[in-house]
Amino acid sequence: MTQLQFIKALQDKGYSLTDTQIQQFEQYRSFLQQENKKINLTALISDEDIYEKHFYDCCLILPLLKDATSFCDVGSGAGFPGVVIAIMRNDIEVTLVEPTQKRCHFLSKLIELCELDNVSVINKRSEDYTEGFEMFDVVSARAVANLSILLEICLPLLKIEGTMIAMKGALGQEEIKEAQHALKILKSHVEKVNIETLSDQSTRINISIKKMGKLSNKYPRPYAQIKKKPL
Questions:
Q1: What is the distance between the alpha carbons of residues 58 and 42, in angstroms, rounded to a whole number?
Q2: Which of 152, 154, 158 is nearest to 135 (CA)?
Q3: CATH number for the domain including 215?
Q4: What is the extent of the structural domain holding 122?
Q5: Residue 53 gets which letter from DSSP?
Q6: How many domains would you assign to the chain?
Q7: Tell me, what DSSP letter sits at residue 139?
Q8: pLDDT above 90 covers what percent of the chain?
Q9: Are 50 and 115 in contact (CB under 8 A)?
Q10: Beta bridge partners of 203
């Protein structure tokens, strides 16, 4: 997907980019390619892959954000989807939670480069970011962990009746089936499943999950425990 195809694809979905947004995405692409030579940020680094498999892919969750005013990106890495959402929706306060210091440094420089004033970076694991618990309207994660694990590290950050968006590939439906126990324990349910196909016929499954009640104080457990014995 070229830059022009990206702009057209978003227009087809009802999103018209301003000149500023177009420039910000170009700055993002260029800076990502430059910094990826120094630290491992992504294996998909061509212009076309960045525009389709990163930028466009992240924009697919926009319809799920509704009237959100706060958004948390767990395991932000190279800023997907958090920085993309910040560019597309400057009315939303975006928090990027990333445990790796080098990636946080990249994110901070990227935010400055793109002149984004609605983004903050937290250098912590999400389960240790206790000051963020029950703070966000929407929490999302992309390419972080299996859904059963993801639920326990993301849902504590959500307000009650907030929305978690799990960005998944072709196995997303299977992960929903496997996560039924975790959904029940963590007082949440799948509200919507959006399925999209990219130009290479790869599948994107974005799972919208509603948090229905206050979680027990024993969640989230330490990450080693979550990973060793998922709910």
A1: 14
A2: 158
A3: 3.40.50.150
A4: 3-228
A5: I
A6: 1
A7: E
A8: 94
A9: no
A10: 197
The pair of three-digit structure tokens given for residue 152, joined into one six-digit string: 């326990």
CA atoms within 13 A on the CB side of 214: 2
CA distances from 95 to 83, 132, 172, 185 (A): 9, 10, 25, 26
Q: Map residue 158 onto helix, strand or coil.
A: strand
How far, in Å, CA of 138 to CA of 171, rounded? 23
Q: For residues 24 and 44, what is the distance between their CA atoms, to the nearest angstrom?
A: 19
Length of the chain: 231
User: Whole-angstrom Cα distance, residue 51 to residue 1?
Assistant: 6
Residue keyed to tokens 């989230």: 220
Q: Which amino acid is at 81?
A: P
| Cα-based distances in Å from 73 to 38, 120, 180 | 23, 10, 23
Each residue's pLDDT tens digit, 91-147: 999 999 999 999 999 999 999 999 999 999 999 999 999 999 999 999 999 977 899
Convert the pLDDT of each residue in 44-86 to its tens digit: 899 999 999 999 999 999 999 988 999 999 999 999 999 999 9
Instruction: Round to whole Å and give the CA distance between 193 and 215.
Output: 23
In terms of Cα–Cα distance, which of 102, 91, 88, 81 is closest to 17? 88
